[in-house]
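HUMAN: Now follow token order:
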Amino acid sequence: MNRVVEKAQLSENVFRMTIDAPQIAAKRKAGQFVVIMTEEKGERIPLTIVDSDIDAGTITIIFQVVGKTTMCLAAMKKGEDLFAVLGPLGTPTEMENFGTTVVVGGGVGIGVAYPIIKALKEAGNKVIAIIGARSKDILILEDEIQEICDRLIVSTDDGSYGVHGFVTNVLQDLIESGEVINRVFAIGPVPMMKFLCEVTRPYKIKTIVSLNPIMVDATGMCGACRVAVGGKTKFACVDGPEFDGHGVDFDLLMNRLRMYNNEEAEARKGCRCHE
């Protein structure tokens, strides 16, 4: 069993949870994830490891309530035990001194961006972070990211804070300003990642995207996270979750993400976690 050490609500439907998992904390690297089960007969859900504390033997995750299992996870309290936490899984982020890197995080993807920013900085890169949300009240981790990057640019769709516009506009402006960018990392909603790749494609700036939103069982057995990359079939959970975004078939990916909308809605109706 893995105990919930701390839990905090960061914004509407977004939570940060620290979990006792000493073996995972000792081995995990940026870009890797864990599979969590809240109960023995529950669903397996993959969640990116945001941070770890080797001395305390803990890992930290950030998740958004979108379905039945994340509803159950959000209902858990400090001191309660999760049925299982498996990991670290997935291929770590390729990490070296690339030069000037830009990490773009959107929505809850900002949590996934955090460990990548931290690792890139530790590898000697100049790191520019762009984070965005629909509005100021749902923006997360601004202070934490400000502390570890060289420059932070914040945007909101509604203009309630920072730059008024999308993260794609911010990246486009940054490129057009003459900033020499050696690599871009994009983490967030799939449409956001798709359009960020279209921004960088004409400039031939290698852009790495994290396809963790499409993973299910994290073993490659279910096949739900199949994605076409460069015309070849890959599995996000075992081949990724990070891929060269210029090779990803995002249209196919978005169609796959909509496959089980009705079933998920029914599962949410039957959730009794908050009772």
Summary: The longest helix spans residues 109-122. The chain has a mean pLDDT of 91. Residues 131 and 142 are 8 Å apart (CA to CA).
